[in-house]
């Protein structure tokens, strides 16, 4: 673990230089050699400073760990305004979460940001002050003094005491029948309904340990973990991108349509072929594609929809169509408001589906089906916060949802959310 000690020492040396007693934004970077067994997730979990944020791109090329907050933002709109007001460099990253209601968020400019892009890693320290960079440099030195040595991530060793569903199965079946009746009446074409599973354990759940276990098994997913304080966290492993922006180039996708996966390749392939040819699932996916394209058309240039493909995960398989385009203007706030929530997590038309969710789901989604990631002037990327869990001390809430369209079968939809929740549930519970 020598690399983290060397990098922190170099940052202390840079902080010793004379800084002006004036407002402003500044950062110091030190290169971080990837020649030891450093795990940024273990490093985060060893600290007692908050917030902590971990994020890994689903292809594994990009990974970040953010520790401590220099500035906090209750919405992405406020974070974007901050970057513009400070005339921030293109690489200045603000990290965190957007709630299901995109007007709410928990994002922060980190004091320390460890970033790996492909084979190159950097440790960055941010300074920001509305009055004196000199004063903030002193606070940064105090912050660095609080950091502890990296310890191994503990194993998950928990005993579940109680488990309850909201809604339970009978209520879920009733809710799906109500949704399909409402669709038949023409109120909306699709609604995505979710279930919350509350599990009480015999001791507090270690968010970093759960994130590490999920990262090891749930491959081809984005992994994200926001630790708000010593008792509260939100985390997940999701296959779905909300958007990726590089300059004005934008990539998004429609991930909708689900079937079970299988450990055996041939059986998984047969299930995938069924999904590719199933009318209900293809229709559900195309509803999402059409909605995304319609929402983007006034803000982008030519839209390109790629052919459907199967995304195979540990417990489920999905239909995905990627959508590529170029923005007329680089505006992350606009991207969020246009794309979230998509028809894949709310329904279509959006407003009617959201009203049905608010009136009928027996819990508040909070961060579930929102998004997790980062924004900067030069680029941004957020994943959809699915296959996720909310931790509060010894209580865990797991989330899973299913897209309901005309012809949806309530029993099949219950099986679908069971399969989706299994991505995290099986790491903690042994049936």
Quickly list its features.
431 residues, alpha+beta, Anthranilate synthase, 20-stranded antiparallel β-sheet, 32% helix
Describe the structure.
With 431 residues, this protein is of the alpha+beta class. It has two domains: 2-145, no CATH class; 160-206 and 240-428, Anthranilate synthase (4-Layer Sandwich). Helices cover 32% and strands 35% of the residues. The protein has eleven helices and 20 strands. It has helices at residues 2-15, 40-45, 76-85, 133-145, 169-184, 207-217, 265-277, 279-296, 332-339, 350-360, 410-428, and strands at residues 24-32, 52-56, 62-73, 94-98, 105-117, 120-129, 160-166, 190-201, 222-227, 232-238, 241-246, 249-260, 304-305, 309-312, 316-326, 347-348, 371-375, 379-384, 388-392, 395-405. The protein has a 20-stranded antiparallel sheet that branches. Strand 5 (105-117) and strand 6 (120-129) form a beta hairpin. Helix 5 packs across helix 11. The longest helix has 19 residues, at 410-428. The two termini are 38 Å apart. The mean pLDDT is 93.
Average pLDDT, rounded to a whole number, is 93
Query: Globular, elongated, flat, extended or rod-shaped: what is the shape?
Result: globular
What's the alpha carbon Rg, rounded to whole Å?
22 Å
The span between the termini is 38 Å
Tell me the total number of β-strands: 20
CATH superfamily of the largest domain: Anthranilate synthase
Instruction: Please count the helical segments.
Output: 11
Strand content: 25-35%
What's the CATH first level of the largest domain?
A: Alpha Beta
Overall domain count: 2
Structural class estimated from helices and strands: alpha+beta
> Sheet bearing the most strands, described?
20 strands, antiparallel
């Amino acid at each position: 673990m020598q690399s983290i000690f060397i990098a922190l020492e170099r940052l202390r040396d840079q902080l010793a230089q004379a800084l002006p007693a004036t407002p402003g934004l500044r950062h110091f970077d030190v290169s971080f050699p990837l020649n030891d067994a450093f795990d940024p997730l273990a490093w985060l979990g060893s600290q007692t400073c908050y917030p902590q944020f971990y994020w890994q791109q689903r292809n594994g090329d990009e990974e970040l760990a953010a520790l401590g907050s220099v500035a906090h933002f209750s919405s992405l709109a406020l974070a974007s305004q901050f970057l513009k007001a400070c005339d921030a460099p293109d690489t200045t990253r603000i990290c965190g979460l957007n709630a299901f209601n995109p007007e709410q968020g928990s994002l922060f400019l980190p004091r320390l940001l460890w970033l790996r892009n492909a084979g190159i890693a950097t440790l960055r320290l941010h300074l920001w002050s509305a009055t004196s960079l000199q004063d903030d440099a002193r606070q940064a030195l105090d912050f660095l003094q609080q950091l502890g040595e990296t310890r191994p991530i503990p194993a998950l060793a928990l005993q579940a005491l109680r488990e309850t569903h909201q809604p339970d199965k009978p209520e879920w079946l009733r809710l799906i029948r109500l949704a399909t009746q409402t669709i038949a009446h023409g109120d909306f074409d699709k609604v995505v309904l979710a279930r919350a599973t509350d599990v009480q354990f015999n001791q507090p759940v270690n968010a970093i340990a759960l994130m590490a276990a999920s990262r090891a098994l749930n491959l081809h997913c984005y992994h994200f973990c926001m630790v708000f304080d010593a008792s509260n966290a939100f985390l997940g492993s999701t296959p779905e991108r909300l958007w990726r922006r590089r300059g004005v180039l934008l990539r998004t996708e429609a991930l909708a349509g689900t079937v079970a996966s299988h450990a055996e390749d041939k059986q998984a392939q047969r299930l995938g072929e069924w999904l590719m040819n199933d009318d209900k699932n293809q229709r559900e996916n195309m509803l999402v594609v059409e909605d995304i394209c319609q929402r983007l058309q006034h803000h982008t240039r030519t839209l390109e929809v790629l052919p459907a493909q199967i995304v195979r995960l540990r417990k489920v398989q999905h239909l995905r169509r990627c959508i590529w385009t170029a923005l007329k203007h680089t505006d992350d706030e606009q991207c969020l408001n246009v794309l979230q929530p998509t028809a894949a997590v709310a329904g279509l038309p959006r407003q009617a589906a959201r009203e049905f969710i608010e009136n009928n789901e027996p819990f508040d989604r909070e961060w579930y089906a929102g998004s997790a990631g980062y924004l900067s002037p030069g680029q941004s990327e957020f994943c959809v916060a699915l296959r996720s869990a909310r931790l509060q001390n010894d209580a865990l809430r797991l989330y899973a949802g299913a897209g309901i369209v005309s012809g949806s079968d309530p029993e099949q939809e219950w099986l679908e959310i069971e399969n989706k929740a299994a991505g995290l549930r099986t790491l903690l519970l042994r049936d």
